[in-house]
Amino acid sequence: MANVHKTLDAVPKYGEPSGFDSLAALKRLERDPPHQWDEDERELLTILYRWYSDKDATTLPRTFNAVTDQDLRLSVIRYQFDSHLVLYGPRAYPEFGRVMAVPFHDPMQKYGEIRAIVEEKAAEYGINLSRRRIEVKRKSGLAQYARSPTTRKYWKSLVRRAAERERKMSCVPLAPNVQGSSAQVPPLGGVTLAADVKYEDEENWSDVEDLNTSPVTFTQPSPSSLPTTNSIGFRVWDANSRTMFDEETGFVSQAFSIWKGEYPPPFSPDGQGRQALMILTNLHLSMSGGASAFVSVSTSLLQALVKASTMKDPRIAVVALDHALLQQPNKTLPAAEILRMLKAEGQAWWARYKGHAERMVWASVPAAAIISHFPLSELRQLSNQEQTCEDVLSLNEIQSGRRTQYVSSRIRDKNNSINVGTARAMAMVSRAFGMHRNKTSLAHIKGLVSSLVDSFQLKQVLSESHYTSGIIARAFAITLRSQAHSVQDIELAFQDGVQRGTATIAFYARRWPAIPRRRSS
C-alpha cells in the first residue's frame, strides 16, 4: 500500500505562489473537470485491485478504462483506490466493504462473472492482466485515526452520507401485490414481477397467427388500460409471403405491390373514410379477403419467432415504429382499436383475437424505418455458439405446431433470471438485431430489452444491493459496444427496458386467470 502517513497528514500550504506553483495551477485549470465517481465504478475498482496484480502500476487503471469505456488519467484511478477507498474504508464506501467481505477464493462465485468480463476486456485491449494467487492485506479506514482534523472530519462526513444512502435504499417500497398473480420477485427496476403471464383466449393474427398478448412496454401499468405504444416491432417473412420486400423500398403490402408513384393517403376512421377503412381492415384481419392494403408488424418477439417456425428459411426485420414516416396520421393503426371499431358496427364477429400486439401499417413500411433485417438462421447460429444465448431465447422450444401460449409456459418453467451472464447474452442478441449501430436510438434499445424480458420470461432476483443491479446493467452495456451511445446511457436504457418488460408481465398477470397448459400435437 502507498505510504499512509503521507496521505493522512498531507495538508495543502497556501501562500504566495512561486513561478512553479503558478505554472502547476495553470496546468490544473487546463485539465478535464474532476471525474464524478459512482458506486458501480468504485465496486469495479475494488474488484480489480483485490483479485489482480498491480505490479505494473498502469495495468489495472488501463483495465478499468477498457471495461468502463472511459479515458481517465491512470494516476486519477490509482489515487481513487489508494487515497479514497482504502484510506477511508468500508464505512465510508460500503461498496468497497461488500467486495472485501467476500472470501478471497469467492466460493459462491459472487464476482466470477464480473471477473470474466474484466479478463475478456483486458485481452481484447492487449492488457497483460494476471490474477493474484495470494491476497494482499490492506489496512483500510485509517482516515478515522488521522492526525489531520480535516481528514477525520471528511471521513465522518462520508460515513454519514453512506449511512443515509443505505437507509434510503432499505426503505424503497416495492410495488403492491397483485391479486391473482403468482409468486412475485422484487426486480431491478422497482416494479414487482409476477412469475406467471396469462394470455388471451385463442387468437389468430392476420399476419402472425396464434398471437398471444405481449404488448407494448410501459412504466406503471394501469389495472384498466393496456399500453399502446412501443418504439420497435418485428416482422418475419419468407419467399412465400404475400407482402413484398425490397432492400430499397422496404415492405409493400400486396394491394400496393403494382402501384406506381406515391401511395394514396390512408383513410381516416372519422368522417367519410370510415366505411372504406372498415372494409379494408375487416378483409385484412380476417385473412380471407385477398390482397391486403396493410403490412402487419408485431410488438412481440416471441410471437414473431413462433410464426417463423412454420416458414422456410425465414428472415426477421426490426421496425422503428417511432420513425417519422410511420407517424403520419392514420399510417400505423393499433389492431386492437380497429377490432373494437369493427365489433361496435357488428363486424369481425368471428374474432376472439384482441390484437394488442399487432400494428397495421398502411401500404408500406419504408426502408428508412427498418433498423435491421437478417436470416433467422443467424440467431440459431448464435444460440449454438453461446449457451447463455440459448438459455435466454430457448429456441429449441419454438417448433412448428406449437402455439405461443404453450411455448411461453415452457419457457416460464425454466425460471431464467437476470444476472450478469444473462445481461451479456441479451447484449449479444441485441447486437444480432443491430442495436449497436449508429442509426439505433436509446428508445429502440429499451424496446428490444423490454421485448426480451417480456417474451422470454426473464425474471429478476432480489439483489444484495442496488449497486449489483448496476453491475448487471454495465455488463450489458459493455458487451453491446454501441457505436452511438455512451456506456452510461446504455446502462440506463437497459434498466428502463427491464423495468418496462417486467411491468408488462405484471400487467397480464393481474388481468387473466390461469389457463391450463395444452400439449402441442
From TrEMBL:
Pfam families: DUF7587. Residues 230-379 form the DUF7587 domain. InterPro entries: DUF7587. It comes from the Eukaryota. This is DUF7587 domain-containing protein. The lineage of its organism: Eukaryota, Fungi, Dikarya, Ascomycota, Pezizomycotina.
